[in-house]
Write a structure and sequence with these properties.
Number of strands: 3
CATH class of the largest domain: Mainly Alpha
Largest sheet: 3 strands, antiparallel
Number of helices: 5
CATH topology of the largest domain: Multidrug-efflux Transporter Regulator, Chain: A, Domain 2
Helix content: 55-70%
Number of domains: 2
């Protein structure tokens, strides 16, 4: 281990975990407030040390939120209902499930485009009014 790398069982700092999971540190601290299952050890000065199981859980939460389109409340429910729902391997999705997720995403995108359009109209009205 002369190359400076840590073993898989070593504790990691928030900086190392943020780099490994490609997440900002503030997101990790926020998730800690939302998911009581994430309990890094805290040492002097409030430094966080994450165990391998913390990192694995963070990786799963990241996948559910970013890849599978779950909300924080949705992930909280999965964790509350039993961590067997949050398995090491993501569930294989049927085409119907994938289609439902895509439709939900399309609906959200349409809604967001409508809101942006409304805001642009309001901005134009205010610009002309001033």
């Amino acid at each position: 281990m002369g190359d400076g790398s840590k073993s898989a069982s070593a504790f990691r700092t928030i900086s190392e975990v943020a780099t490994e999971l490609d997440l900002p540190q503030h997101v990790l601290r926020f998730w800690e407030t939302k998911f009581n299952q994430i309990r890094p050890l805290k040492r002097g000065g409030g430094r966080r040390y994450y165990r391998p199981e913390d990192i694995e859980l963070l990786r799963q939460i990241r996948g559910l939120l970013y890849d599978n389109g779950y909300t924080i409340k949705g992930v909280q429910k999965l964790l509350r209902d039993g961590s067997s729902a949050v398995s090491k391997k993501p569930p294989t999705e049927s085409p119907a499930t994938t289609s439902a997720i895509e439709n939900r995403t399309d609906d959200r995108n349409k809604e967001l485009r409508g809101v942006v359009s409304e805001l642009q109209e309001i901005q134009e009205i205010l610009r002309n009014w001033a």
